[in-house]
Amino acid sequence: VVTVAVFAEGSAADEARAAGADIVGGDELIEQIKN
């Protein structure tokens, strides 16, 4: 199983979701991963 995480915001995040990224986020995603 491969999970794709993308660190992006705004239109880049929308593009990542449209391309099939499983997890998309910015600073909040970094905090989730750290914790």
What attributes does this structure have?
35 residues; alpha+beta; two-stranded parallel ribbon; 2 helices; 46% helix
How would you describe this structure to a colleague?
The chain is α+β, with helices and mostly antiparallel strands and 35 residues long. The protein has one domain (5-34). It has helices spanning 11-18, 27-34; strands at 5-7, 23-25. The protein has a two-stranded parallel sheet with strand order 1-2.
Proportion of residues in helical segments = 40-55%
Q: What is the succession of H and E elements?
A: EHEH
* Largest beta-sheet details: 2 strands, parallel
Number of strands: 2
Strand order of the largest sheet: 1-2
Structural class, judged by helices and strands? alpha+beta
Total domains, how many? 1
Short description:
The protein is an alpha+beta fold and 35 residues long.
What does the secondary structure layout of this molecule look like, with pairings?
Elements: E1 5-7, H1 11-18, E2 23-25, H2 27-34
